[in-house]
Design goal:
Blueprint (H helix, E strand, L loop, with lengths): L14 E10 L2 E10 L2 E7 L2 E8 L4 H11 L9 E6 L6 E6 L5 H7 L4 E2 L27 E2 H4 L2 H7 L2 H6 L3 E7 L4 E7 L2 H14 L8 E5 L5 H10 L3 E4 L5 H10 L2 E7 L2 E6 L4 E2 L3
Parallel strand pairs: 3-6, 4-7, 8-15, 11-12, 12-13
Antiparallel strand pairs: 1-2, 3-4, 5-6, 9-10, 9-11, 13-14
Length: 278
């Protein structure tokens, strides 16, 4: 069942103390500060190494589930037999896959590489392997333009670790009334999205046909791809999309919003789902 409170990752492991020299017109001073934690987590499939993800610790089960869902290693929560942290290594997550789907195909489509916090698809071998198979999103409900304008502040208020560090991205899942249902912070935008979608996957709530996904920063191809696979009809961001993100959103049936700031935003595809702007 869904948690009654929006998802939060408020643990001490999310920030690390650092010393900085503060330079200002008044001079230079030494001060204590904190930085967002970035560490690798290794995702294994039935004990075999599959990928290393640079991420902010927290919600590692959800991250592993969401990542493997986006990679099409799993297609549903029922494909997962278990997700366990290695008792000897806290940054290793081992996922047991029920009737594992063609491990040879997995190896051909993805190299064994480190996935950085800024790249969600860096391990792909060919452009062709980026293609996904999912039904076009046909949701016919609408969201009011005035409600869209409230999403950035709603997500920002939930970013507890960003308030301390200024160094984390966020992804938030909203219902059609603008209520925040789930959120995650991470050094990588795509990791935050994987954590949110992974949580919904594990709770049996996919497809997210009545949800709005909102992310900090820009919208790249992999963010739209993850939303597409999860069945999200409306995707917004505080910054710009890439050209490939716009193309995929148009093809997938996703309403894509960018530069959502104050009372203004850009509509890039499937504008029919936004009411009150004409």
């Amino acid at each position: 069942m869904p948690h009654e409170q929006p998802y939060s990752m408020m643990t001490a492991s999310l920030v690390r103390p650092v010393r900085v020299l503060r330079v200002s017109p008044e001079g230079v001073s030494s001060r204590a500060d904190v930085a967002a934690t970035e560490e690798p987590v290794e995702v294994r499939i039935d004990g075999d190494p599959f990928a290393v993800i640079m991420r902010t610790p927290g919600a590692d089960r959800e991250l592993a589930a969401g990542f493997l869902f986006a990679e099409r290693v799993i297609l549903a929560a029922s494909d997962i037999e278990r997700i366990e942290r290695d008792p000897r290594e806290r940054n290793v997550m081992d996922v047991g896959i029920r009737d594992a789907r063609d491990p040879g195909s997995r190896a051909r489509n993805r190299r064994r590489v480190v996935t950085s916090s800024s790249c969600g698809l860096c391990g792909r071998v060919t452009i062709e392997s980026l293609r996904v198979e999912a039904p076009e999103i046909l949701a016919d409900w609408t969201i009011d333009a005035n409600l869209i304008a409230t999403l950035p502040d709603a997500l920002r208020r939930a970013q507890a670790v960003f308030n301390e560090t200024g160094g984390l991205h966020a992804a938030g899942l909203f219902d059609r009334s603008g209520n925040l249902e789930a959120m995650a912070e991470d050094v990588g935008r795509h990791n935050a999205v994987d954590k949110v979608i992974g949580r919904m996957l594990l709770e049996g709530r996919l497809p997210l046909e009545h949800s709005v996904l909102f992310v900090s920063g820009r919208t790249s191809y992999e963010i739209v791809q993850k939303a597409f696979l999860a069945g999200v009809p409306v995707l917004g961001a505080v910054s710009a999309p890439s050209s490939l993100a716009v193309e995929l959103a148009e093809e997938a049936g996703i309403t894509l919003l960018g530069f959502v700031r104050g009372s203004t935003f850009n509509l890039y595809s499937h504008a029919r789902r936004v009411a009150g702007w004409r």
